[in-house]
Amino acid sequence: MSQDDLIAISPVLIVTLAACACLVAESFRRKGERWPFAILGFIGLGGGIFSSVRQWGSDLIGFGVILGDDYALFFNVVACGIGLLMLLLSSVTSERDHIPQGEYYALMLFSVVGMMLMGATRDLLVIFLALEIMSLGVYVMTGIKRGSEEGAEASFKYFTLGAFSSAFFLYGIALAYTVTGTTRLDELGLRVASATQTPHLMLALAAILMLVGFAFKVSAVPFHMWTPDAYQGAPTLVTGFMSTGVKAAAFAAFVRVFL
User: What predicted TM-score, i.e. pTM, was given to this entire model?
Assistant: First the structure.
């Protein structure tokens, strides 16, 4: 592990530490006591933006799979910016809707971590892990109003269909690995380009399966059936988060994979 590795992953690491700090603070908070969880979120997301801007133009690579190119850094800033807007809007709304703040801020920050990783890696398996980190947080946030039956229904539907789409994406990765022997996007792209004269049916099927996984995340037709229930049952803030951050992250990973 070198200094460049740590610098390359520093935006993601800072937001992750802020999310862990929220969890630790929530565990020590007494019932009825107010803690400034939003400040931890501001520090983490602001640090993620600052670290991304400082790395602009450096093109670092962390641990061989985490990219610090300008494309990844741009989407880091977008994801952290969406998180900051969520924090600004959450201060009053979360209390009004009786949302457990420690859990809410931690889940939101972990989801932002997944969003940042989706556009900042060149390995399909890391993209899948980032997709699950982002999705699991959003599933729970959808039903975080524990007294809401609509929220519980929306969360269950979102989780069930999300697991279904993740299976499609993972099967696509498995087929791509079967044909090319790698999950690294740069190596996979070279092997696909060298085999253009004899296209492989399994490779086309792998691309279709991965496309289905991404289409679900951006609620593209005909994989949009979960969207009305999830958006209606989730708290308004979470709906805004899903309709912006999740879509931006899925688009970032989609472009990274298919180009």
Answer: 0.88
